[in-house]
Design brief:
35% helix; 9 strands; binds iron/sulfur cluster
Length: 364
Amino acid sequence: MTALGPPIGMLAELTHRCPLQCPYCSNPLDLLKADRELKTDQWLSIFEQAADLGILQVHLSGGEPMLRPDLPQLISALATRGIYSNLITAGASGKPDAMARLAEAGLDHVQVSFQGALAETTDLIANMKGAHGKKLETARAATSAGLPVTVNAPIHRRNIGEVAAFIALALDLGAERLEVANVQYYGWAYLNRPALMPGRDEVLRMADLVERERERLRGVLAIDFVAPDYYARYPKACMGGWARDAFMITPSGAVMPCHAAASIPGLAFDNAATRPLAEIWEHSSALQAYRGTDWMKEPCRTCDRREIDFGGCRCQAMVIAGEAAATDPACSKSPHHGRMVELATTEASAQSPDYIYRRIGAAV
Ligand code: SF4
Ligand code: SF4
């Protein structure tokens, strides 16, 4: 195994609170309430330690990070230490005016998610009337403040036909980047998988469209594509490999390799409010559990892609194969791959059930 280097990126989930209720939200089913969130001085200390550790980028996320009144202070602390800050917002908190202040504080980039390219889709998926209009205002406020904007489009069965409209929306907003991200089935998305799963043919048509548009818009709009696991041949390197060069911190300070890692039984997460970050990065048992390749079993152990995708996603292996150390069932070499594809095909061809919306009261 190669020696452990410093992490490059950190995802700071500042809060689980959010005015929206997306049925694919990657937050856990048990949302943390505001009184469990780290205080300003605790985040400031973590950011100082992150800078000392060599972290180059911090993604400020949630829930809705714009609900934190200390956001300008947190951004300013990152800017002072030369850390690139990216705000990941749903843009519906009704505070578009805050963008200019965040830019002044030193914010480097904004990512605004849109549940649909059309207002009726956004409002339906977010379960909030008027959400789309608020997002447009936020994205426009960000570009007016001189901030580079990425439009994030989580793709599923209801909006897979809106990809061309998402591209038009991103161009209209003056975004630099569009992220066409097929929904990953963890947290609320796993609960809603039968309602969200698109069909294979639709996915292939969309991937073709993205490829063509990428060529056409080269130099105008960058388009990223997060492939759908359930119809893939090989898995993605989840988070670039388990605790390889990035990690995340929950609103209450737990340091985890990814959003869904708490779904793996037996992992104990250190808390960044009580243990130094450098120590956690190096010695946390949870971060070490599936780091590198030593933990792998066959077929990953001898596969020539093991240092490309690092065996895929441990949480998906847990939920589909029943074992976190198994090969990600998204991989065609997994003995569970056929079942995963069959599951997706069956769900996509059945009538879509109603969404189970993220319960707003759970975190507010
Ligand atoms: S996915 Fe939706 S509900 Fe979850 S944090 Fe983002 S905007 Fe809020
Ligand atoms: S067998 Fe393992 S390492 Fe090889 S492609 Fe599949 S998931 Fe990746």
